[in-house]
Amino acid sequence: MIDEDKINYNDEFDNCCEECKKEDESVKQNLLLIGYKICNSCKISKTIFPI
User: What is the pTM of this model?
Assistant: First the structure.
């Protein structure tokens, strides 16, 4: 059984981008839409330069 007191949801859903480590509001939106914790600027750069 999972003890819900030990789970820290704030660590999972913070607004910190995994690529550039900046705080941005779009990180949470992109996590829900595409499944990655990246900001819009990193998403655009990954789309243009996919490597």
Answer: 0.67
